[in-house]
Fold this sequence. Notes:
Layout: H1 2-5, H2 8-27, E1 30-42, E2 48-50, E3 57-65, H3 66-69, E4 79-82, E5 90-95, E6 108-113, E7 116-132, E8 143-151, E9 154-160, H4 161-164, E10 170-171, E11 186-189, E12 198-199, E13 204-213
Parallel strand pairs: 1-4, 7-10
Antiparallel strand pairs: 1-3, 2-7, 3-6, 5-7, 7-9, 8-13, 9-12, 11-13
Amino acid sequence: MRFLTENFxxxxxxxxxxxxxxxxxxxxxxxxxxxxxxxxxxxxxxxxDLSPDVPDRIQLQVKxxxxxxxxxxxxxxxxxxxxxxxxxxxxRTFTIQDSAINLPTNVNLxxxxxxxxxxxxxxxxxxxxxVSVTFEQPMPQHLxxxxxxxxxxxxxxxxxxxxxxLITTLPTEPIDLAQVDVKKPIRLNVLLGDPELSIxxxxxxxxxxxxxxxx
Length: 215
């Protein structure tokens, strides 16, 4: 009995507030929204890479109370696909279902666009790529570059097989001969133009130029 009478007013107010919240939720009209959410891939083998054409976002059409729909966003919601069964280079079609989406309570998936995702895995390869020195154009007419030495001369790159086979050189940031001291070593970053590839280690190199002044 003491449990019921102790802090009685506070307990009554708590029950009343909970009741109001329940009524508000029950009476809240259901809406339909279309949101774009990220696709996450779980248990990807370290020896494999996602093919570049595999989508990283998908549209969902969902239905639920307005308050709950506000919780469905790219920051809070994602589609999780388990790749544990794909241990070799292969392709598989996934049908998007509620079980793969972390939707809030009382929010239901009406459809996804597209409704299926074709996932292709490729071998993950490493490649040593030579560095090439580039210059701002036009170059000063009075200055001619005789030679250039780069250290390191090779940079290791990693990525899916279809992309790694296409890269043949890594250009440096363009050197502006009018703005640098050509007698000193020049520190630069190499430029990796393919977003599907990654540089292993540092992307910085040191360039030493040998130049002559022309009349």
